[in-house]
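Q: My labmate handed me this sequence with no annotations at all. I'd like to see what the chain might look like in three dimensions before we decide whether it's worth expressing. Could you predict it?
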Amino acid sequence: MADYTAIDDPSAHFQVATYTGNTSAPRNITNDGNSNLKPDLIWGKNRTTAGTNNIITNSTLGFDPANTDSLLSTDSSGGVNTPNPTYGYVSAALTDGFTIASGGTNDDSFNENSSEFVAWQWKANGGTTASNTTGNGIDSVVQANTTAGFSIVTYDGNGTQSGQTVGHGLGAVPKMILSKDRDATSNVPNWRVYHQALGNTKYMTLDTDAAVATYNDWDNTDPTSSVYSVGGAGGYTPTNTNNTEYIAFVFAEVQGFSKFGSYIANGNADGPFVYTGFKPSLLILRNSTNSGYNWWILDNKRNAFNLTDEVLYTNLTAAEFDGSGHASNMGVDFLSNGFKVRTTNTAINNTGATNIYMAWAENPFVTSTSANSIPTTAR
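A: Here is what I predict for the chain of 379 residues:
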């Protein structure tokens, strides 16, 4: 009998940390999962203070670099920024967490006094990168975790509008790609999202509330186990502008650990159940059919029990929204094998709309046979 999952302990590859800011510097944030996690991608958000960015930092560009810009915001089409001591930044990854270099009372990015924070963290390859020449026309630099289906990819665009591919290093077909023009100098600097449920002719923008749109960001070609396609048309090359630096976070599905799919909303408070094969730790949702809706972020640390309704947004600098105070109870239930929508709110349950999701596990529904196939429990 084949193992149900290759990852019995998801915390070795992904964890969520929450903490209260105190302006101390330096400050170490320690994860509390079953395994130690030295993160290579850290996505942090101030939950309390409005007007604060979703900050992404990673070990490929470097933590606390002396001369290299490294910070990006998922809610902005802007380019990379240099860590600013005034506002605080991640200065190092630890064996099980990360260090914050704090800037005092103005440290609203990572350690503002008395503010609540969350950090979503993924493991790649410990900061060790490798050149990848499998692409057609474009060489990339890749830091890959093939076990967990995650890689950080950087490359320079060449301006060719079709026929160009980029190596991703996963050895498995990507299901989701978050691509960003690091310089913000291209004619389309927004975050471009590939999602397998939408197909290779479609894209979405992580930093806006726009609906799914048609364009050949992905050269109308499905990714393979070694490369994904980039391009554009009519002078617009969102993923391959000449002499532009790009970074992409590339994800493949791993059974029992990650899932990238979609569901059709029913508009009912007894909403759709979505099977993932694991109890979710992080869930990102988006109504892809309609414009004017935000990308929702839900996790198991900000809500330890169901209803899971503390909402942050990839595309907004807003503070956390408590969905329990909303007339339609804006939330979902995290279950042992997936999630169930528990709201009539049209952001994630607009009748007939397609909603895409990205999910990572707290526990697989059933561990591998080598661990005696232990089932997880519900919340």
